[in-house]
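Q: Please design a sequence for this.
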């Protein structure tokens, strides 16, 4: 089986690639970066043929997408048309929990209403609609953390401040659904092997406030006297939590790593990308 990975040199792509390299698959790792062992494509408009495409090439950073000078919507549409022309047997697409918005307090289910409120979520929803058929799998992924994560990740932001007298955050009360990268990788492996199709939430199924997350990280690093400060006192609270019942029932996936386990592993083995 030949598997193409677009965005293979990114945070999530590099972890999926590392896992698949230990298995008996014919792999093509596609990247915009010119790196040894990678198939170079400056815009992903010349993807190789294969059986399965793991499509990670869209940016997972909302601030970058929302501030692009070029029209990200048209660029993405052109790429999707190219992917469609390749006739892959299955596409596993990395969408985002951002399609649910961030003002809902209850755990979100896959069959609930979604809405586009910025360019990032608009692109994700458009791509979901494009890929949603009886062959493909779409993962709505929560807040992933782990080695090689971006500096824009809130976990990364906290760790960068770990030796300061205080941790300064935009908001300590907003909640997120955090999932360790190893669990996400395992879900992609199951998706490769599964005959299932459709949309699946991919998160821990739990929410934690950013302030509580900071406390857990400080505890792992043995920092007992560090203060946690909220920079903005009157920011509207945002809340994200995913219901993961569907993916457990259909694909048999369930997260294994707790936040503490993930942070411990990150402390021992991780680094933060710039």
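A: Design:
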């Amino acid at each position: 089986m030949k598997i193409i990975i677009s965005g293979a040199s990114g945070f999530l792509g590099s972890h999926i690639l590392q896992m698949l390299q230990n298995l008996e698959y014919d792999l093509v790792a596609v990247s915009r970066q010119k790196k040894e062992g990678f198939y170079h494509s400056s815009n992903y408009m010349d993807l190789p043929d294969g059986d399965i495409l793991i499509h990670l090439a869209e940016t997972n950073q909302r601030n970058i997408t929302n501030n692009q000078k070029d029209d990200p919507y048209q660029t993405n549409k052109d790429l999707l048309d190219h992917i469609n022309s390749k006739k892959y047997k299955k596409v596993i697409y990395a969408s985002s929990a951002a399609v649910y918005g961030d003002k809902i307090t209850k755990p979100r289910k896959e069959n609930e209403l979604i809405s586009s409120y910025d360019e990032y979520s608009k692109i994700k929803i458009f791509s979901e609609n494009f890929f949603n058929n009886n062959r493909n799998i779409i993962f709505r992924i929560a807040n992933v953390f782990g080695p090689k994560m971006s500096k824009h990740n809130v976990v990364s932001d906290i760790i960068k401040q770990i030796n300061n007298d205080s941790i300064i955050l935009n908001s300590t009360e907003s909640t997120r659904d955090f999932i360790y990268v190893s669990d996400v990788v395992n879900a992609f492996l199951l998706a490769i092997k599964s005959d299932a199709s459709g949309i699946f939430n991919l998160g821990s199924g739990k929410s934690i406030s950013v302030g509580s997350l900071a406390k857990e990280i400080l505890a792992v690093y043995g920092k007992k006297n560090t203060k946690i400060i909220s920079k903005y006192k009157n920011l509207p609270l945002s809340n994200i939590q995913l219901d993961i019942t569907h993916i457990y029932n259909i694909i048999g996936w369930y997260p294994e790593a707790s936040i503490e386990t993930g942070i411990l592993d990150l402390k021992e083995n991780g680094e933060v990308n710039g």
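Q: Thanks. Anything notable?
A: Residues 60-68 have pLDDT under 50 and may be disordered. Residues 2-269 form a domain with the Rossmann fold fold (CATH 3.40.50.720).
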